[in-house]
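## Example pair
The file below holds two records. Each record gives the amino-acid sequence first, followed by its C-alpha cell line.
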Amino acid sequence: MKASFAGFPQEGTVFLRALRKNNRREWFQPRKQIYEEQVKAPMIELVSALNLEMMAFARDYVSDPKKAIFRIYRDTRFSADKSPYKTHSAAVFAKR
C-alpha cells in the first residue's frame, strides 16, 4: 500500500511562528484547537504515512502515531529558558 501525506497546512506554520513570539500560556490556551487541527493532526497523518512505508522494511520501528509524536509542552525545570511550549513538532520511531 502506498502512503500519502498532503503536507502541513500554511495555518500550522503561521501558528508556530506566532507561538515563537507569544510563548505564554495565556496566548496558547485560547488557540490550542488551532494547534490540534493545524499542527498535531497533520503530524499524526505524517507518522501514519511513514508507518505504512516502514512496514515493508522496518516493522520493528512502526509506532502508534499518537505515542510517537512529542508533546508541545517543554520541561523547563532545569532550563534557563522558561518558555512553556516548543515551537516545532517532532516524532520518534523507536525500535520495539
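Second record, same layout:
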Amino acid sequence: MNDITASKNINAETAKTNLKDGSRSKKRKSLKPLSKIFPYLGRYKLQVAAALFFLSLAAATTLSLPVAVRNMIDKGFLSNNVAFIGNYFTALIAVAALLAIASSCRYYFVIWLGERVISDLRNDVFAHLSELSISFFDRSQSGELISRLTADTTQIKSAVGATASMALRNFILALGALAAMVYTAPQLAMIVIGAIPLIIIPIVGFGRAVRKRSRSAQDTLANATAYASESITSIRTVQAFSTGHIVKSKFSNAIESAFEAARKAIATRAMLTAFAIFLIFSSVIGVLWFGAQEVLAGTMTPGVLTQFLLYAVFAAGSLGALSEVWGELSQAAGAAERITELLDEEPEIKAPENFTKLPETIKGDMQFDNVHFAYQSRPNAAALKGLSLNIKAGETIAVVGASGAGKSTLFSLMLRFYDPTSGTIKIDGMDIKTLDPKEMRKQIAIVPQDTVIFATSASENIGMGKEGATQEEIVHAAKAASAHEFIAEAEEGYDTQLGERGIMLSGGQRQRIAIARAILKNAPILLLDEATSALDAESERLVQEALEKLMEGRTTIVIAHRLATILKADRILVMDGGKIVEEGTHKTLSKKKNGIYAHLASLQFDAAK
C-alpha cells in the first residue's frame, strides 16, 4: 500500500519526537508520574492491607530490639542476673521468629502485588494501543512501543513491588526510631533531628537529577530496541545485500548511547548514595561522642546509650536506604512518564457519542462526495483531490494507476483509518463519521497485498475472520479459497503452526489463507489490494479462482497492477494525482486515444504476446 508506506517512511525520523517531546512539556507539570499506578493497587485492597500489616509488624518487631538490648545490659550484665539473661534470650528468639514470619509474609504480598499490578498495566497499555488510530502508528516505531510495554513496565514493577515496600519499611523504621530516640534521650535526639534537613534536601535534589537521566537512559534504550526490531524483521534484506556489518555498527552505536545515558544515571545515583551515607553516619558518630560524655559523667547508663545508638543506627540505615530507594523510585518515575504518554494518547478515529446504528445486513452502496485528503506528515501534498465516486451494491470496481496515485489511500478512507480533510464518505447513504468504526469495519473484508499471517495455527489464522467461528466453518472457508488441500497435507493439518509472518508458507498459500479469512468474514463489501501481484502463474490461477468465488454477490473494489485480473470488472477507474481521470470498461478504455489505461494495457498485453 504505497501511500501509507510513503507516509510511514517520511515519519520514521520524527516518530520518537512526536511521541515523547510532544507530551513531555505536559508531563513536566505532573509531580506524581507514578500516581497512574494507584488505581491498580486499589483493585487489590485485601492484599495491600495484608502487605501493610506484615510490613508494620516487621518494623515494630525490629524497633523492639534496642529496648531488649538496654534491659539486657542494665538489668542483666551490670546486675549479674543470670536468670534474667536466660529468660531474655528466650524472648529474643521468639521475637526473631516473629520478625522472620512477618518479613516472609511481607515479601510475598509485596512481590505478588508488583507482579499482579504490572500484568494489569501491561494488559491495559496493550488494549489501549490496539484502540489507537492508524495515524498514531504512522508516526511511531514498533520497537520503541514494545520497549515501553516491556522494559518500562518492568521498571515500574520493581517500584510497585520491592522498592515501594523498602521505602515504606524504611520510612516507618526511621520515624519509629526518631520517636524512640526522643523518648530515650531528648538531648541527643535533637542532634539527629537537626541533621535531617541537611540529609533530605540533597536527596530530593539528586533524585530529580536521577529521574531526568533515567528518562534519558530509557529513551535511548528504546531507540536501540526499535532499531534491533526493524533489523531483525528485515534480516533477509540485510543478508541479501551483505549489509550486516553496517547494521551491527549502527546497533552498536545505539547501545553505546544507551550505556552512556545509563552511566550518567548510575553516577548520579552513586553520588546521591555516597552523600547521604556520609551525612547520616557523621551524625551518628557525633551522637556517640556526646553520649559517651554523658555516660562518663554518670548522667546516662550504658544500656540507655546502647539503646539510643541502636535507634540512631536504625534511623541512619533507614535514611541511607531511603536515599537509594529514592533513586530507584525516580528511575521508575521516568518509566511511568513514558507509559503515561501512551495511556494519554487518544484515538483520532472513534465512535461519536450518539452514533448511527448499522442494520444487521447492509446493501453495500458506497459514495465519495468531493473528498480531499492529505497525510499529516505531508499536509501540502494532497493524496486525494476532490474525489467523487458512486459504487452500487454488488458492483465490481477496479482501480488502477501509478504508485502514489491515491489507490491505497482510497482503501484507507473506506476502512476509516483516516478521516477526509473535507468531503464525505457514505455507506448505504450514512456518513461513516456518524457510525461506530468497529461496527462499520465488520461490514468490510480486505485481502491485502502484503498478507498478514500471525505466528499461530492455520485454523486460528483463518478464524480471525469471524469471532467464534466453528472448525466446520473454517474448513469450509479454506476449501472455498483453495487452501484446504495444502493445509490438510501438513503434518498437523489445521493445527499446523505457520510461523512468524507465515514463514512456513509460499506467497500463494499466504494469499489463500487471507482469502479464506475474508470468505469466513462474509462481509458485503470486499477490498482487494493487488492480491495477485507477486504470484507465479499457477498460484495466481488458484488465487484468482478463489477470489472469483469470494466476489460473488459482494460490492468489490480491486486495486490491480496486472490488468489481466480486472477484465471482468463492471467499471475501471484510472487514478492519477489523487483524482479519477478515466472511467469505463476495459473495452472502452483500451480504445481511448492517448488514454492512461490504453497505454498501460498496450504495455502489458503487447509484452505478453
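Notes on the second record: The chain has 20 helices and ten strands. The longest strand covers residues 366-373.
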